[in-house]
Amino acid sequence: MGRFRDALAAPGLAAIAEVKRRSPSAGDLRPDADPARLAKQFDNAGAAAISILVDERFGGSLEDLAAARATTAAPLLAKGFFTEERELLNAKAAGADAVLILLRDVDDQRAAALTAYARELGIETLVEAHEANELERAIELGAEVIGINARDLETFEIDRPAQLDLVARVRHHGGVIVAESGVHSRAQGAAAELAGADAILIGSALMRAADPAARLREILARPLVKVCGLTRRDDVDAAVEAGADMLGFILAEGSPRRATEVLTVPDDCLSVAVFVGEAQDAGSNLVQLYPQEQGRVRGRDAVLLRDGETVAQVVDLPWEEQDPLHLQRAAAVAGRLMLAGRLGPDNVREAVRAIRPWAVDAASRLESEPGIKDHDKVRAFVEAAR
Predict the structure, then answer these.
(1) Which residue is catalytic, options 124, 134, 144, 180?
(2) What's the pTM?
(3) Active-site residue 180, yes or no?
(4) Which end of the chain is more exposed for a tag (fewer CB within 10 A), N or C?
(5) Is residue 149 annotated as part of the catalytic site, yes or no?
(6) Nearest 5°: phi and psi at 107?
(7) Residue 20 catalytic?
(8) How far apart are CA 360 and CA 17, in angstroms?
(9) How many CB atoms neighbour CB 221 within 10 A?
(10) Element (H or E) spanning 134, and its range?
(11) Which listed residue (20, 40, 92, 377) is catalytic?
């Protein structure tokens, strides 16, 4: 292990913040980017590591890497199209802690030689795959840090669902998995996290932002905010506009907030179908499943599922009852916690400070009547939860 890998493997979702002036797909992003200044800002904003483009096609150079090294102690990834040992030596001399190895550009023999030479130099490698065959090659190579890129480097097309499928395939592999490209929101970062990624690499979203460091903090901020019990398109749009990350649709019989279906949501948000007793395929990104309880619409606590696998615990109140020890119960939960139970604009901030949950979930206290959201309350709740 090395400090690059260790930084990405720390608990929670880590981020590699990327400095690049331009890209072949999008053109100029931030032509005047100062790598020294940005590297220091990203370090202060919570980046686990910083990627510096050193290829001239991206407006980068080894001088940029050296400039960044002079201002931060954070692990630095030299990102370029490396195929020769001397290129790794030059990156090491400029201050790299790790280098990118693109399996698209090298065969297995060359990849093995480069990773072996990197170890001799005392630097690490991020071995990048884009499709299933390359992912298998990375595993066979014994890569400790594997990047899975949502962008096809030939067509520049982004396919996040395919990327997340690959991430999920190796979530128990034992190495560190980095989801690369296509992350522009908290929910997209969370989608990679729930699929099994240890870290995300964020480039264009930061370089296009007026304040790149503030944008990084925003994407990494927790808790995520879920607005549940949505039944109307107008309410979905209002929740999205307010900044909600997850949009919940209750499909359980007997609920006063029962929706007829999961409505479409923007791709920078996550949809959640809520069931009681048994989950069904409703076309949602996630499923929130409550147990059945005799004489009640649902049992108390739930699990959050991705493709049938539990990815978070939901701590709720019993149906139409209070519990003075609710927050204490929540505080005892290990792992990802979604806190629910009569949350609203007036009490969510205190709950977040007390529990530090991964996500918060509200429904009834954001309504003008069951199933109909009060848009002012929705906005106030999202703002207070942040």
Answers:
(1) 180
(2) 0.94
(3) yes
(4) N
(5) yes
(6) -85, 180
(7) yes
(8) 26
(9) 14
(10) helix 132-141
(11) 20
377 tagged catalytic: no
User: Of residues 40, 79, 92, 373, which has the active-site annotation?
Assistant: 79
Residues 340 and 316 sit within 8 Å (Cβ to Cβ): yes
DSSP letter string, 167-233: HHHTTTSSSEEEEES---SHHHHHHHHHHT-SEEEE-HHHHTSSSHHHHHHHHH-S-EEEE----SH
Choosing from 128, 134, 144, 367, the catalytic residue is 128
Residue 128 appears among annotated catalytic residues: yes
pLDDT one digit per residue (tens) for the chain, 386 residues:
689 999 999 999 999 999 999 987 778 899 999 999 999 999 999 999 999 999 998 999 999 999 999 999 999 999 999 999 999 999 999 999 999 999 999 999 999 999 999 999 999 999 999 999 999 999 999 999 999 999 887 788 889 999 999 999 998 888 999 999 989 999 999 999 999 999 999 999 999 999 999 999 999 999 999 999 999 999 999 999 999 999 999 999 889 999 999 999 999 999 999 999 999 999 999 999 999 998 888 999 999 999 999 999 999 998 888 899 999 999 999 999 999 999 999 999 999 999 999 999 999 999 999 999 999 999 999 999 99
Burial classification of residue 385, based on how many CB atoms lie within 10 Å of its CB (0-12 exposed, 13-18 middle, 19 or more buried): buried
Q: Which residue's structure tokens are 């029962």?
A: 258
Q: Which of 23, 90, 181, 185 is catalytic?
A: 181
- What the chain holds in terms of domains, given with CATH numbers, is 3-220 (3.20.20.70), 224-385 (3.20.20.70)
Answer yes or no: 181 catalytic. Answer: yes
Is residue 111 helix, strand or coil? helix
- Evaluate whether 41 touches 49 at the Cβ level (below 8 Å): no
Q: Give the number of C-alpha atoms closer than 13 A to the C-alpha of residue 44, restricted to the C-beta side.
A: 10
